[in-house]
Structure formats: C-alpha cells, structure tokens
Amino acid sequence: MSQRSHILMTRTWMKQVREVAYDAEDCIDIFWYHNGHRNCNHNPIEGWLRKIIRPLKTLRAMHNLAIEIRDLKARALKVSERRLRYKVEAAFGGASDAYTAGHSSPDYNDLDRWLPALNIDESWLVGVSEKTKSVIRLLEDGNLTHLKVVPIVGFGGLGKTTLAVTIYKSPTVMRIQTRAFLAVSQHYDLRILLQTLLRQLIPITGDPRSSGEEMDPLRGIETWDISELIGRCRTQLENKRYFIVLDDLWSPEDWAHLKVAFPDNEKQIAALIPMIFTTWSLCPLKNLRSCSIKRAFKLDTCPPLYHDLEAISNSILKKCGGLPLAIVSIGGMLARVKNKTRAEWEKVCDRLGSGLETNATIGGMRRILSLGYHDLPYHLKACFLYLSVFPEDYEIKRGPLVRRWAAEGFISGIHESNVEEAAAKCLDEFVSRSIVTPTRIASTGLVRCCKVHDIMLEVITSKSIQENFISFIGNRQYSAMGHDKIRRLSIHNDSCGGDKEQEDPNTNFSHTRSLLILRCCKKPLPISFAHLKLLRVLDLEGCQWLSNEDLKKICKLTLLRYLCLRRTNVTQLPKLVGRLNELVTLDVRDTSIRDLPETITWLGKLKHLLGGRYRHWTSINRVKIFEPHHALRIPRGLRNMKCIQKIAHVDIASSSHAMEEVGALSQVTKLFAINHEFGGEKWKPFAASLNMLRESIRHLSIIHWRYKDVGLEIFLELESPPVFLEKMYLWGKLSVLPPWILSLNYLTDLSLRENFLDGELLRQLGKLPSLVSLKLYHASFMGTKLWFEQGLFPRLKQLIVDNAPNLDELRFDGGASNLERLTLAFLREPAEGIFGIKELLRLREIDFFGEIIFNSLVKGIIAEAKMHPNRPRLE
Fold it and tell me: Which residues form the Disease resistance R13L4/SHOC-2-like LRR domain (predicted)?
C-alpha cells in the first residue's frame, strides 16, 4: 500500500473515531439536558407537579438514548477492528505531517494577505527603515495639490501592513492632523467601513451630561444610509490635509467604490493602500545572511553555540524565502525549543522541505505555518482551531476569548484553580509563538486584543474543516455543507439577509454545541433556537435583529455555559433565565437591560455577570467613561450565587439588599458599583460587604455620580481595605485621599475622576511601589502644579491628565522615569507650560485629545519630541 493510501486511510479512521467521541459526548449532554429540565424550577408547588409529569414526558427520550448508547458501543468496536485490520498505526505516526507537507487544499487561492502589526517593534525589522523612507518620498514628490495614491503590493506575508503601519506612525505622517487606518478585506461591508472611518475622523467631545449631537456627533450612525455616510466623510475631509491607509484592498473596482468618500481638494493629500493590483511591489527580504540568530528568531540573547547554529539558521532563513511572516512563525517555534542544538534545529529545517527557497508561493508558506500547529501541545490545539470562528480582520478581545475557551471545555484536564486563568495562559502562549499578533497592549504588558494573520487564518480554517471542528455560513470559501453533523457553527456578516439559497434548508443543526453570530443586522438562516438543545456557547454580539421573544427560547437551552447579548437591542431578561443552571458567563453590556429578574439568583454556577456601557474618548480606547444610567439592578438573593467572581456594573441605590449579601461571596474578584442618588447612605451596605472581601477583591470600581456631592466619605476609613487590590477606579468627591490606598502594594492601575483633590496628590501616590498606570480624569486634581519629583512613581508607564481645571504647570523633574505613554487634554493652556519631557528617557508616545488643542502648546511638545532620543510618536 502506498504512503498516500496509508495517509488517507488514517484520516478516515481518525474521522470515525472523532465522530464516535462527539456522539458519545452528545449522549451525555442529552441526558443532562433532560435532567436539567427536572431541576430548573425553584417554585416548591410547581416543582412537585413537574416531578410527577416530567418523567412521563422524558421516558421516550431516555429510551431512545439507551438505544443510541448501545449503537455507539457497536460503532466503537467496529472502528477498533478497522484499525487492527488495516494496520492504521503503521502510518499513524507521520500521517499528519506527511499529509500537510504534500497537500494543498483546492479551496485556497493565492490571495493577498495583510500582517497585523499595530504594536510591532520596528527595531526587530529588516529593511523596513529604507522602504519607509522610499514610500514617504513617493508621497512627497510631485504634485502636492491633488489626491495622491501610493499602493503597496505583493502576496501575503511580505509585510505590506507592517510597512504601512510604520509609515503611518512615522514623524512625517504624525504631523498630519487628520489620519485614519482602515482594514478593508476581501468581503468588506461598505456601510461598516464608512462608519469606522467616521469614528476615527470625528472625535466624541462634550460633557457626559449633555445630550444629542452636542455630546455625540455620531449618534444614530447605525441608521445612516450609504449616501449620508459618504457625504459626512467628504464634509469632514474637505479642505483638510489628510492621510488615509486602506489596508487589504483587493481590486481597482473596490478603490473606485471607496474613493468617492475622499475629496480631491487644494491641500496636500495622501492615501497609502496595501493592495494586490498595481505595479509598485514589495519584494521578499534579500541578503539576510543570518539576520543574526538573535534578530531573525526573536531570541533575547544568542545561544552559546552561536557559530554552530549560524549555518543551519541560514538554511532555515533560505527556506523561509525572505518572507517576514514565515520567519516570525518559525522563529516563534525555534524559540520554544528547550535544547537549542544543531541537531534539534536540523530537524526543523528538514521538516520545512523545499519550503519557499525556489518559489515564494502561498502554498509553501502555508506548509511552513502548519508546522506551528503540529508543534503545539495537545491541549492548545483545540484553542488554536477555535480561532477560525472569527472573520477576517476581526479584533479578538482577550476576556471574551478566554471565557469562551473555558466554556467550550478546552481547558479541562489542566490542573489550575481557575479555568479562565489557565485559558489566559494559552493566549499568552499563542502570542509568544506568533500565532496571533497583539493589537492592544496594556501598560502592564497584558495583551488586551489580538488578530490572526489572514494566511494563518486560512491554515486554521482548513484544519478545522478537515476535523469537523468548525462549520461556516456566510464565507464564500467555506460552507456548512458536507459535514455529517455540525458541532460548532460560525455565521459571518455577509450571510445576513441574503444568499440563503446557497445553504441547504434541510441542514441539521441539532448537534451544534457552539454558535457564533457576529455583526449581523438582519436575522441569518432560519435557525431555531428551540432545536439547539445541546448548545453550550452562544455569542450574538452586535445582532440587532435579536428580540425579547428570542430570549425566551434561548433561556430554555439548559446546557448553556456562555451567553453574550452584547450590543443587541434586547431590553429585558425573561424570568426563564433561571433555567440556565450551567451558565457561567452572562454578558449584557451595551444593551438596554437594567432590571434583572429575581430568577437570576438561581444561577449557582454563574461566575461573570457583565453589564453597563462605556463611552470611549480616543481611538485607541485608553480614555473612557462609564455611562451612569446603564448600571444593573440586582434583586435580593445574591448570596445564592456562590461561584460569582465578576459583577459589573451594579446600581447600589436599587440593589441595597444585594449589596448586603455580596460580602458572603468569597470568590468575588471584580466588583463595579455606582450610585447616582444624593448622599452617601446608600454606600453603607456596600462598604460593609467590602470589608468582608478584603482578600478576594482584585479590581474595584466605585462611582458616585453627583458632581459636588460629598458621597464617598464612608470609604475614607474602611475597617479592612482590600489588601490585594490591583486595579481601582474612584469617581466622586472626597475631602482627602483615602489613606488605605497608600498601603496597596499590589496596585498597578489607578483611575480618579471628579475627586477634587489638592496639590499633595502626587506626593501621596508617588510612593506606590507597583503603580504602572495613573489616570487623572476630569477634576480629579484641583491643584495648579503637577510636579513629578525625583524618586516618585518608580514603575509608572502610562499617565493620563484629563482637564485639570486649575493646572498651570506640568513638570517632570526626575520622577516617573519609566514613563512610556503620556496622554493629555486641556480646557485651557497651562499658564506656565509643560517641562521635562526630555527627562522621560523611555517615552514612546504622546497623545492629545479633547475639545481644544492649543497650537503653541502642541508645537512646543513637538519640538521637544524631535530632540528626544526616542523620537516619541505624537497623536
């Protein structure tokens, strides 16, 4: 039998084993589904009646389940016999790698792909500096009074987006006041793209208590038609010098559709477009030599056997064909090798085959990227495949991702006290292996958001389909068709409201255990929630079609562990939510849900209760404000939710009984509370409970939303303050800073707003040993001078100063020596000025935001930035 026949037979056998395992798990879930219906009622009388009637209704289901279990045992025996009969193990050891090395999926197209690089460190890049200067010269040369377009072309992995981002962040471009960076992609939605452009071009200004367009000029943007969106874009750009990056643009026709939004006026204008269809091309990196092993393969120091490894590293680089994506991917794998010996690296080199050294094709790079998958530990492979549920160019948020991984059961078997923490470590592992690229990084170094390179996404998607791990609707390359049973389903935006005829209306969704529908304004295929009895994970973020009636059906899915209703139009949770016995995460952020039903307290396994709404004031989301009237009202009975860890945000004025009970919940780590009534009486139950949570709380937010009402005095003298607190947000007037804050040795992130504190604030906070981020929002500081003296804030990396009303001088005099990000907003120009920027030797970014930007102030900062050794970027 040929090797290929062995491989195909092994794949068939593996599919049979996988389907038996899936069906066995379905049987267990069906049993728990019926068992859950028996135990989901907390009304004693109704529960007694159900105990009599329910067994009669479920008797047939249990009988069918017994028959299915018997059939499963027979199937398992047959599969085992086939393995012995056809000697599958003879090919099993190398089947996966051999198949990957010789297989090129017919579904792949040699398409242009872009490399997410929004936080890339240019010091690691080869040849980018010269290319950046070359493109900037193209932008500046010639006619400066008409629209200038500079396409960057080449196939995926060459670093087109890396180059575009480097140019976008260069000092030359940073001086252009109006800028935007848009990810277009092959299947872009013109309406969403124009909305994204306007959100970058038009900042949200005004007081949070204002209303209408005075507060938010983009209010109602979701309802604007295409012509109005284009008109607003042209109005915003008219008579301005602007710089726009359109990333991942595919055809001249796409550019023809988009360019109507960009007026050609009498200013110097530039558009930088990484694309596939013009003659100015980006080539693979040449003459790399070894790039030094340290630089090419991301090693902090060169191995002791540097000269022994140099030759083999050159061979690996040659097979990478000069493609940055391939180099980074293989580099991430080599960095994980424990024994950095020539023999180990030669194994990697041999596995690359001919690689890309003779022909830099997409197929060759796909083969290289596949090695990263086979190099993963077993428990990471399911998490890796799950990344394919997200559409192209999607920014993946850390929190929701790790909570979904945990809900899917991917982290089971790992010995960790907290499953979500173990899932977070998996994401960090992917970052270190360059499987995902960070797009937002906190000052603490924590990766907040990430993206998957499009070619890597194709590799993941292909493997997911091979293993029937994920099915897709709304993707032109992949479809739910062809799978015997759909286990996990991802519905993308382009399936909503159209192309329904492309899918089989008889497709069976009853075995679906995970359903992800993102950004769908119209209801997709006629999937009935009532038929999804095995569903564990349901993410409906941004689904505007979702109704309160749909929620009633969803709340009958008793196996649900994860339910996200974020950014939907639902207004009320039904009482049926109490049936969701297995629910771990309930996310109702950015909805109109305020009052939670009393049955919410029946959810004994719930860990994450997330509500409320933020408004972001900068494009990079570093400056945000909670909208006070969007907090949740929780009923009595919170003490029954023994597993609860995160509660955000709760209205304490309407949840006083719940606040008395929260102190009994020893697992709570995150607690956000708000009061918008006058006086501090409503805080008493909350403060009493806070004293009981001193060892568990890690993240605390206290908001007293009354401008000049001294309502937080009760927190000045807590009996037992939270000793392990890491993040704190304190909004409300205080006579003095609570003294216990100065003893928080673990505090890394502190945000203050409308506290009206005096000039001693910095001297008090400057001694906190772990403080990395300090955000002084509106009216938190009332002094005239912010002076960062020598020795203060030893670890501070991020500082936000937002509209300190009396500020005359901001001075850095030896303090905050590790500061990297400085964000400033002023209602009036400081009379004395800003001094000491040059003393901040690690400074990388300076951001201005707000209603008024003073030219003299900005010019002074720009002048200092030019002389600074780091040349910090200005926004």
Answer: 511-874
